[in-house]
């Protein structure tokens, strides 16, 4: 059993100032996996002081130094591959292959990308009438969700190191252990003390403390819209910059000329990867009316090719949901869906043989109206909705009829139509067919999906202030 009750502050693992702890549950077994400290305001205060003290020297560190720290982190991360995979399977319930190919891989990708982006990054530019300087923003607070334990923390940390901004990370209390391994890796990478701090605890104490702290300059948050709004309100008191990566209800637009099997596979993998607990998941599938029958048959036939169950079993691609709460939420949406639409496959309750663990049945609804609850609200589980269209322009209009704008997908053949749809969807990231993900591609939302961009050079910009110097003498 893991038992890690310390916080990482000012280059050291130290005891919490409070006695409270939080249990971490393995969602596949429903057993307690370990405990973390429920940090206090005093713990946070120590971390902010350490970050503030580190700021003057750290913000003036050279590009070469930062590249070296990032390279050391890459090495340390690779060295602990097996452990990271194991931990994420335990705390999140991700199947071993997903912990490896998705979670481990993405966390690593951001550190490697930061090395590359930083190498090409210019912190000073002569713009004729003035010189532009990009300087570290100050102390940054990072608040992360449970659904991608390494990806979310890594993109923020890598960008902050590239920018020379000291940070305090508060990982999600449901999945804190992968982040604690990251802290150990950073500790060994030579990053100056105080530049990286990790304080465990609840959102209501540590998260809230970060967003309202007078000595934190920037909050980078990934999570729900509800919490995002609270963070913005708190941040307003000290005019703190905020970056918010929030939810989504992304469209998959299937064109007339699409291969039905390819389109169905895209739709299924969007709800089966990470058990649908993906903010950018495509969960509204727009198909031409003429394709309805064949698409429904194909998607039902293909669903079993995505086996779900025990995340430690060979060949499993979809595990349980992260928690009892998440399971309850998904059940309530499936119940709503049964009233609003036609249940094609799945439904409420646990799948047979998977009574222990927070398993939900992969569920597909058809005859869905875009204005129904299951098509408008983020479910964050293995549930998708099929919506038919007669005219492509109507499909685009429906695709954009959402408060969200995080991602979008288009499946088909005609290049001109693919380009047209890609440029018409109001979202921060579009995937055309099954294109590979580029770690330098900015990630973030239009509309209520958020503010700001992470990943690559755009991610680094978030941790920088802009200064224009007029009349700078040349060196
Ligand atoms: P959440 O409840 O918003 O929690 C996210 C983080 O915020 C956790 O660390 C949580 O702490 C903390 N928190 C809770 N209350 C807080 C408060 N009052 N002030 C500051 N921090 C607080 O979200 P979740 O349920 O963990 O994650 C699911 C949501 O995240 C979905 O809506 C999903 O779409 C979104 N998400 C978005 C992205 C993206 O990049 N756009 C990526 C992943 C997830 P504790 O839970 O430890 O108490
Ligand atoms: Mg939550």
Would you give an account of this structure?
The chain is α/β, with parallel strands linked by helices and 475 residues long. The protein has helices spanning 41-58, 63-79, 81-92, 96-119, 151-163, 177-188, 203-212, 225-236, 260-272, 292-302, 324-340, 373-376, 392-400, 415-424, 456-462, and strands spanning 2-4, 6-9, 12-15, 21-26, 31-37, 124-126, 131-136, 140-143, 167-170, 196-198, 218-222, 241-245, 250-254, 282-288, 342-345, 363-366, 383-389, 404-405, 407-411, 429-432, 446-447, 450-451, 464-469. The protein folds into 2 domains: 2-246 and 449-469, 3-Layer(aba) Sandwich (Aldehyde Dehydrogenase, Chain A, domain 1); 250-438, Aldehyde Dehydrogenase, Chain A, domain 2, CATH 3.40.309. The chain is 40% helix and 21% strand. Helix 7 (203-212) packs parallel to helix 8. The mean pLDDT is 97. Bound molecules: NADP nicotinamide-adenine-dinucleotide phosphate and magnesium ion. Residues 143-148, 170, 172-173, 202-204, 207-208, 211, 222-224, 227, 230-231, 245-248, 279, 378, 380, 406, 450 line the site of NADP nicotinamide-adenine-dinucleotide phosphate.
Q: Quick recap of the structure?
A:
The chain is α/β, with parallel strands linked by helices and 475 residues long. The chain has helices spanning 41-58, 63-79, 81-92, 96-119, 151-163, 177-188, 203-212, 225-236, 260-272, 292-302, 324-340, 373-376, 392-400, 415-424, 456-462; strands at residues 2-4, 6-9, 12-15, 21-26, 31-37, 124-126, 131-136, 140-143, 167-170, 196-198, 218-222, 241-245, 250-254, 282-288, 342-345, 363-366, 383-389, 404-405, 407-411, 429-432, 446-447, 450-451, 464-469. Strands 15-16-17-14-13-19-20 form a 7-stranded mixed β-sheet, with helices on both faces. A 6-stranded mixed β-sheet has the order 10-9-8-11-12-22, with helices on both faces. A 3-stranded mixed β-sheet has the order 1-5-4, with helices on one face.
